[in-house]
Amino acid sequence: MPTITPAHLHALLASTDRHAALVIVGGQAAVVPSTTAAPGPDGPEDMMVITTRDAVIAELDTGANDEQLERLAQRLDVALDSLGG
Fold first, then answer.
1. Structural domain containing residue 48
2. How many structural domains is the chain composed of?
3. In the Cβ-directed half-sphere of 57, how many Cα atoms lie within 13 Å?
4. 78 assigned to some structural domain
């Protein structure tokens, strides 16, 4: 089962916080507000994946259709797996 799914990217794109972040905390992906996304003393269990909606949009060819979000989610998930996530 993938850690990062298109639903996570949809949630990030839908966030009203332009600087919200997609993070991995305790092995689970979550979209968090920018105020809690900054690195902290929680150690290696917290991992930033993508920082902002703009970063997601920059990875997409022309907007955010479901197929593009699926491919991006798969790429992020493979990258996370290669880091031991």
1. 6-82
2. 1
3. 9
4. yes
Return the number of other C-beta atoms located less than 10 Å from residue 8's C-beta.
Answer: 25
Q: Which amino acid is at 85?
A: G
Residues in the chain: 85
pLDDT tens-digit readout, 63-74: 678 888 999 899
Write out pLDDT tens, residues 34-79: 777 666 555 445 666 776 777 777 777 666 788 889 998 998 889 8
- Per the CB < 8 A criterion, the answer to whether 82 and 24 are in contact is no
- How far is residue 4 from each of residues 14, 24, 41, 61, 83, measured CA to CA in Å? 16, 9, 24, 20, 14
Question: What are the tokens at 3?
Answer: 């850690």
